[in-house]
């Protein structure tokens, strides 16, 4: 699988990463995670993104990785107390949250810790960011980042405090392409695309923990009415993920799944490379014509 140098972190990350929210929320068994990671490694994946608020995802990943820690770049998040006694977004929460993640992940250091969807005011005050920097200085993480959307993403990027940005970008979520992602690229930041296939809502039934995202993306894609979504699920998903990875400035796209075989399908899709310019511009132009001002990413 293609490797991309992850901004100023200089990590050579795989173009496709594993998002672990489904693992934590959908009661995936340890054996299934072992198979999924094996399948992902076979496909060339080397990046795993998780968070303490994703159920028991950190524990499951830590157990599955075992002595293979050096094969992966491990990314987690902080900001939500998720059972700790400190209140959300208090500076005192940051280091205990990271220390808990390290214990769950069975490692002494992660590669990246990201502030996870803070309010814009939290970012402007800077106290939590300062606490995250102290954790980095202690050696708990190599790099620090921001995960979120909308105005907060631009505030984070322009602050100059963060090494990376994780943000929504897909065929149904393009607001950031000319905004925070373009600004991040100017500053040499690593960019992680979350929800890069818009949860593949055009091929899935409604009714899950992602239902709020399903509703928003279903409505947008109904209005956008891309012709390629009428193709088979495998073909349309491939088109969607190739679009996201064709966005200038995007280094890696994290996709969540509980099905080991999906990794090879996704790897096959991105092996075809970026979308032809005509296909990419068709999707961008359709967005410019149809999108509404409130079609921004969801935290």
Describe the structure.
With 299 residues, the protein is an alpha/beta fold. It has a single domain (3-290), classed as NADP-dependent oxidoreductase domain (TIM Barrel, Alpha-Beta Barrel). The chain is 43% helix and 16% strand. It has twelve helices and ten strands. The chain has helices at 21-25, 30-42, 57-65, 91-105, 120-125, 127-137, 150-159, 180-186, 211-224, 233-246, 262-271, 277-290; strands spanning 3-5, 12-14, 16-19, 47-49, 73-78, 110-116, 141-147, 164-168, 190-194, 252-256. An eight-stranded parallel barrel has the order 3-4-5-6-7-8-9-10, surrounded by six helices. Strands 1-2 form a two-stranded antiparallel sheet. α3 (57-65) links the parallel β4 and β5 (73-78). The longest helix is centred in the first third of the chain and has 15 residues, at 91-105. The two termini are 29 Å apart. The relative contact order is 0.15. The mean pLDDT is 91.
Number of strands: 10
| Number of structural domains | 1
Helix content: 40-55%
Strand order of the largest sheet: 3-4-5-6-7-8-9-10
Outline type = globular
Tally the helices: what do you get? 12
What is the typical, i.e. mean, pLDDT?
91
Any guess at the CATH architecture? Alpha-Beta Barrel
**Range of strand content:** 15-25%
CATH classification class: Alpha Beta
| CATH homology group | NADP-dependent oxidoreductase domain
Strand/helix succession: EEEHHEHEHEHHEHEHEHHEHH
Might you state the CATH topology name? TIM Barrel
Largest sheet: 8 strands, parallel, barrel
Class based on secondary structure composition and strand pairing = alpha/beta
Rg, nearest Å: 18 Å
Low-confidence stretches: none
Measure the end-to-end span: 29 Å
